[in-house]
Design goal:
The complex is a heterodimer of chains A (545) and B (421). With 545 residues, chain A is an alpha+beta fold. Chain A has helices at 14-25, 61-78, 98-110, 119-125, 147-160, 210-215, 280-293, 329-333, 349-363, 383-390, 397-407, 409-413, 430-438, 445-452, 465-475, 483-499, 505-520, 523-544, and strands spanning 3-10, 30-33, 49-50, 82-83, 87-92, 114-117, 134-140, 143-145, 164-166, 169-177, 180-188, 193-204, 223-233, 241-244, 253-257, 260-264, 268-269, 302-313, 324-328, 338-343, 421-423, 428-429. Chain A has 3 domains: 3-42 and 148-223 and 322-364, FAD/NAD(P)-binding domain; 83-145 and 225-310, D-Amino Acid Oxidase, subunit A, domain 2 (D-Amino Acid Oxidase, Chain A, domain 2), CATH 3.30.9; 419-540, no CATH class. In chain A, the strands form 4 sheets. In chain A, strands 5, 6, 7, 13, 14, 15, 16, 17 and 18 form a 9-stranded mixed β-sheet that branches. Chain B has 2 domains: 2-99 and 271-418, FAD/NAD(P)-binding domain (3-Layer(bba) Sandwich); 117-247, Rossmann fold (3-Layer(aba) Sandwich). Chains A and B meet through α7, α15, α16, α17 and α18 of A and β7, α4, β17 and α10 of B. The complex binds flavin-adenine dinucleotide (3 copies). One flavin-adenine dinucleotide (FAD) sits between chains B (11-17, 34-41, 43-45, 47-49, 247, 249, 279, 310-312, 315-318, 335-336, 388-389, 396, 402-404, 406) and A (512, 515-516, 519-520).
Chain lengths: 545, 421
């Protein structure tokens, strides 16, 4: 008999954590289970564009309206993880002329704000745009949001409101009694233990994996995982979000993110949501399209190329909304206690969470209303507090600013800018890393990376992964169980998504990573040994079965 | 424009460039090195790997793996497939380095397993003298030493990995302790330890703590990464405790010390060196006509009978992968002559971080005169030769053969050139 909760949420993406925040604010006792780290699915692989809605005005006006509304709400509650870059829609010579009018008319109709700019005004705003290819453009309310941080802040608030969040806990099966789902069977991947949890309602917020999860219950959830790939460049090419003024398609958005710029994306239907390797073909598509807006793209150093699975749900019978889908399996499949949510966007996660939470609240007879749009997320700071704080003399300003940019007010209250610098590329301190482990639930090197950006810089952690592993070993007791495994799998993942873009300087950086760990460290020998051990232990397991 | 002439021009000052220059200069040839930037040698552990692994098997000597090397391997090309020739060549190559025994111990025939800065165990052959105690041996007691407040490495983590590695290599009977001492000073990073320990006060404190450790633990070896700029510094500590360094990459100094050691030799033998900002090769037909170097915005023309490319691989800077903007295709070219070095098969990029790497194998194909050759086996340029890791056909990462190949190819080339210049 496992622990009991009112609600269990499966999936720690932005949707799951949005729900965790909302329902725990309404006083429900909630558990969230995530098989890896929070934001390790589509959320941590998205473009990080806080849509103004303009991208969807023509094709999907309902989505556009939702985005426009949520965009404003998020600026109010999560301003500290949003960079108000503004956005441009640019028509290049190769984009259709007739889209311009459609765009303007649809913006007016949906209430999505846009302002036409002259060529001169555009160049003044973004001098790096290709002048020879530029026709017209519009200013819109796009912004850049840090998806890792947004997820994390929702997690903090959920925890503050009493929710339990367990990462590295994979739901492997459901417990069903007659026609009711009453609990889940879970694998704790760090302690390598099986567990059971019970709840009145279980929410399947596992994104692109929701179909796989449904299969365990014999349900046919029409999840259509759709892969999108993105390139991270090592500097700010543009300071605003740049979109192509044409129907949404491949490689037509640049989003600035911290000191980098991200170009995306592609759209390819895949059968297995875990199959998200960004391919050479996609890379070349992005380069081809990207060069329409930015001439020097070939000479700009890329740091990373990665892909994520969009959690699209297609062709459902009675869609709650066209933009995202909530499936109440009690109504659809006569299975009590399970609700699936899918589709949607990072930008609209809060709205999705609100709608789902309303349904759950009604089922459980809770009358409290949603407040997630009114209360700011933890760490929110205002400009006056910040400027007072910046007057402090004893810490280098650049370090302070970076730290505040990453943690908002939390940096100030927990003095996260103090300690030794662990990651030189991203200026991350030992205090910040210790905090992300002891207070923000980081359990692996990758988790620390997602929370602090340590090892996300151009050197791919060749200097800091061992430092981070050392701090984990000193501060998180369960790390003993996974030391080698984590080091090896982290380095493998870092390598995998950079090798395809291995050219110019990056190829050298990449190989340096190989050399340091294979050649000097002989870590390849350790990896081989562990791989063999793993294989043996899994084949032992299957023989027993 | 300034013009310079020489018998031989060597481009690149890693182990390959320096060794070739030293060997040629010792035979009375006039050598100029042209170089820019840092190479892989400075990033290495400064220990000479000869051949540690073949097909994932740990080797006790390069002899045990020689027969399994691919035909493209430089070891086979320099020796014509004859193992005793290779052994001779490499022994001579080592013996011709003056005073080598003050710096390296071991020999090319016998592999040693050495504890590294991460706690893994590395298979290598010639190791820096100050690392002798890091050789892993049955029944020994190792104490991994860290410093409070320094995060660059963590002796507990190192101990953990050493335990695993010792198991893999069959040394279950070693004893491992890990401790951190407090030098009572805030040290922002390990870089500073080198200079801090030059101060008498801290050196004395360290010695005191070391003596206490010897008293409390009586370890066979106390291990730290290669912190010191000069090995005499660790020698002076060894008077008080059995302290040794481990093979370690930058920011540690083992590789840099090897480069410095070779630099001193090159100067001793009157090799001239020119640090340049940029370099372009000028080719006409099948011949290198001259090099044009840029230094402080001025152009300098340099010409000679023979040109030697010792510019290293992708890491060293001699090769680069470029994205051809017209074809949107990746190509591998060298950075001085812009020669297309090899076709880039797409599979090159589909590898795991650990293990064999096609990417690491790419580089010039060569003949027995160390000339780069084309697909038909003909020399690409009649007066151009290559040495070191700019040569392809082997994967030093999975084999552990980097500086070994550098040694063998440098010596072989000098023999060939001495005949004709
Ligand atoms: C390439 C790309 C670019 C995008 N760009 C943008 C953008 O710029 N702006 C925008 O608004 N939106 C964007 N999106 C859409 C947005 O990223 C997603 O809609 C959103 O992140 C989905 O969040 P989610 O929580 O539903 O799914 P996910 O983030 O995928 O979360 C699902 C989680 O469930 C976990 N899980 C799966 N199975 C189990 C199990 N059995 N047990 C426990 N846990 C499990 C997974 O590990 C995962 O973490 C983009 C999407 C992609 C793919
Ligand atoms: C807005 C934004 C900005 C970014 N900026 C940068 C940047 O500046 N520099 C940079 O280098 N990168 C940047 N990234 C990319 C980021 O570092 C990762 O590459 C991206 O999140 C994909 O993760 P990955 O490469 O580890 O995944 P992959 O290598 O694709 O790993 C996928 C595999 O690992 C599994 N997995 C995923 N998470 C975990 C986990 N926590 N534990 C165990 N297994 C797991 C998955 O199930 C899958 O099988 C950015 C990403 C975003 C969204
Ligand atoms: C991290 C790491 C650890 C290693 N550890 C070991 C080890 O422990 N043991 C071992 O045996 N091997 C090791 N290796 C492999 C070994 O270091 C190399 O194989 C070897 O150093 C190659 O020597 P090289 O002289 O050919 O090239 P490099 O040392 O790379 O030298 C190339 C030189 O050419 C110069 N150069 C490059 N391009 C130009 C240009 N266009 N114009 C002018 N000059 C140029 C560079 O600045 C440099 O001086 C390691 C490699 C790495 C990367």
């Amino acid at each position: 008999m496992g622990e009991r909760f009112d609600v269990i949420v499966v999936g720690g993406g932005i949707t799951g954590l949005g729900i965790a925040r909302d329902l725990s604010m309404r006083g429900l006792n909630l558990l969230l289970l995530e098989r890896n780290d929070v934001a390790s699915g589509a959320t941590g692989r998205s473009h990080g564009l806080l849509h103004s809605g303009a991208r969807y005005v023509v094709k999907d006006p309902e989505s556009a309206v939702e985005c426009a509304r949520e965009n404003l709400i998020l600026r109010g509650i999560a301003g500290h993880v949003i960079e108000e870059t503004g956005g441009l829609f640019i028509r290049t010579r190769s984009d259709p002329v007739d889209y311009v009018d459609k765009f303007e008319v649809s913006c007016r109709r949906t209430g999505v704000k846009c302002e036409r700019l002259t060529k001169g005004e555009i160049i003044e705003l973004e001098p790096n745009l290709r002048k020879d290819n530029l026709e017209t453009g519009y200013f819109v309310n796009d912004a850049a949001v840090d998806p890792f941080k947004l997820t994390l802040l929702n997690m903090f608030d959920a925890i503050n409101n009493g929710a339990s969040i367990l990462t590295y806990h994979e739901v492997v099966d459901f417990i069903v009694k007659k026609n009711q789902v009453i609990g889940v069977k879970v694998l704790d991947k760090i302690r390598r233990a099986s567990k059971v949890f019970h709840a009145d309602i279980i929410v399947n917020a596992s994104g692109a994996w929701s179909g796989l999860l449904g299969k365990r219950l014999g349900l046919e959830i029409p999840t259509k995982p759709n892969k999108g790939s993105l390139i991270v460049f090592s500097r700010r090419i543009f300071n605003m979000v740049i979109n192509r003024l044409r129907p949404p398609s491949d490689g037509d958005i640049f989003v600035p993110s911290y000191s980098t710029t991200i170009l995306g994306t592609t759209s390819i239907e895949v059968s297995n949501p875990d199959d998200f390797i960004a391919t050479d073909e996609e890379l070349l598509t992005l380069y081809r399209e990207g060069s329409e807006l930015y001439r020097d793209i070939m000479d700009t150093r890329p740091i990373r190329f990665f892909a994520g699975p969009r959690p699209l749900i297609g062709g459902w019978r009675r869609e709650a909304k066209r933009t995202f889908t909530i499936i109440d399996h009690e109504r659809e499949d006569d299975l009590i206690g399970l609700i699936t949510i899918g589709g949607g966007k990072l930008t609209t996660y809060r709205l999705m969470a609100e709608k789902l939470s309303d349904i759950v609240a009604e089922k459980l007879g809770v009358s409290k209303n949603c407040r997630t749009h009114k209360e700011p997320l933890p760490g929110y700071y205002d400009v006056i507090t910040l400027s007072k704080f910046l007057k402090k003399r004893d810490v280098p300003k650049s370090l302070l600013l970076r730290s505040i940019r990453r943690w908002g007010d939390l940096s100030v209250s927990h003095k996260l800018y103090q300690g030794s610098i662990i990651c030189f590329c991203e200026q991350v301190t030992s205090e910040e890393i210790a905090y992300s482990i002891s207070k923000a639930g980081a359990k692996t090197i990758g988790d620390v990376m997602g929370r602090t950006r340590a090892s996300m810089g151009p050197c791919h952690g060749q200097n800091c992964v061992f430092k981070i592993a050392g701090i984990l070993l000193d501060t998180y007791s369960d790390y003993e169980n996974i030391v080698e495994e984590d080091l090896i799998s982290h380095l493998r993942r870092r390598w995998r998504n950079t090798v395809t873009i291995a050219f110019e300087n990056l190829a050298a950086q990449n190989l340096l990573l190989v050399s340091i760990f294979n050649m000097l460290g002989n870590l390849d020998h350790v990896a081989r040994f562990l791989d063999k051990e793993n294989k043996e232990s899994t084949s032992d397991g299957s023989e027993e079965n | 424009m300034k013009k310079i002439n020489s018998d031989v021009i060597v481009i690149g000052s890693g182990a390959a460039g320096l060794l070739t220059s030293i060997y040629l200069a010792k035979r009375g040839k006039k050598v100029i090195i042209l170089t820019k930037g840092y190479g892989a040698t400075a990033m290495s552990s400064g220990c000479f790997d000869i051949l540690g692994f073949v097909k994932n098997k740990v080797l006790e000597s390069f002899r045990d793996g020689f027969n399994e090397l691919p035909d493209s391997h430089p070891y086979l090309i320099v020796s014509n497939g004859d193992i005793s020739k290779l052994s001779n060549l490499m022994n001579q190559a080592i013996n011709k380095i003056d005073d080598i025994s003050s710096f390296l111990i071991g020999n090319i025939e016998t592999n040693r397993n050495v504890i590294t800065f991460t706690g893994t165990v590395k298979t290598t052959a010639l190791i820096q003298k100050c690392m002798e105690g890091a050789i892993i041996e049955h029944g020994k007691q190792y104490l991994l030493l860290g410093f409070k407040g320094i995060y660059d490495y963590n002796p507990r983590l190192q101990a953990r990995l050493l335990k695993t590695s010792a198991k893999i290599f069959g040394y279950n009977d070693i004893r491992i302790d890990a401790i951190r001492i407090n030098l009572e000073i805030t040290i922002p990073s390990i870089h500073y330890l080198n200079s801090i320990l030059k101060q008498e006060k801290y050196k004395r404190l360290l010695i005191m703590k070391l003596e206490k450790i010897v008293n409390d633990y009586s370890p066979d070896a106390i291990l730290i990464p290669a912190i010191f700029d000069d090995i005499s510094r660790i020698k002076s500590l060894q008077e008080h405790a059995p302290i040794y360094e481990t093979p370690s990459p930058p920011p540690y100094r083992a590789g840099i010390r090897l480069v410095n050691f070779l630099w001193r030799l090159a100067r001793k033998h009157n090799v001239s060196v020119m640090h340049i900002d940029d370099l372009k090769g000028d080719i006409k037909g099948k011949e290198v006509i001259k090099l044009v170097a840029i230094k402080n915005d001025k152009e300098i023309e340099i010409s000679s009978q023979k040109y030697i490319l010792a510019t290293g691989d992708l890491i060293g800077g001699g090769l680069k992968i470029v994205l051809n903007r017209d074809l949107l295709k990746k190509e591998l070219v060298d950075t001085v002559f812009n020669l297309r070095v090899a076709k880039l098969d797409k599979n090159i990029f589909n590898s795991d971080l650990f293990g064999q790497h096609e990417l690491n194998k790419i580089g010039f194909k060569i003949n027995e005169l160390m000339q780069p050759i084309n697909e038909r086996g003909a020399p690409i340029l009649s007066n151009l030769h290559v040495v070191g890791s700019v040569i392809g056909g082997y994967d030093y990462n999975s084999e552990k053969s980097g500086l070994g190949v550098t040694l063998a190819t440098s010596y072989k080339l000098h023999e060939e050139l001495a005949k004709v210049i």
